[in-house]
């Protein structure tokens, strides 16, 4: 056996025994994965919270549109007199709104109207009396508000 053949035999023996990773390599990989997780997890949680907020806003918009539909019904049957005008939402109206919006887990806290007074000029000029321009809806500890055309979620 010459020197070249003996070196090959040694080399082949070392390669056959070296099948796994060293402890240092494994630790380096674990540190890299930990750093990536530390960077990505907070941003993923932020995306989840943002998505939940959007879900609450969509549900509150459905409540708002249902409330406006109820008020439009009242406006349609209004006789045009001051005595017959009523744009307040009763508990029965709120229950109908939440059923219509498929939001039985919600609670309507407040509704504001475009106008709180009637003018003597007739029904057409009093449409704002029945037009909702703000609403506050609560889902457990989450409150969603529409004010001045802006939706906000308060947790």
UniProtKB/TrEMBL annotation:
Instruction: Tell me which Gene3D superfamilies the record gives.
Output: Glycoprotein, Type 4 Pilin
Q: Which Pfam families match?
A: N_methyl
Look up keyword Kinase and say if it applies: no
Do you know which SUPFAM superfamilies this protein is assigned to?
Pili subunits
Q: Keyword annotations for this protein?
A: Membrane, Transmembrane, Transmembrane helix
Per the record, the domain of life is Bacteria
Q: Which residues cross the membrane?
A: 26-48
> Which NCBIfam families does the entry mention?
IV_pilin_GFxxxE
Q: What is this protein called?
A: Type II secretion system GspH family protein
Q: Which organism is it from?
A: Suilimivivens aceti
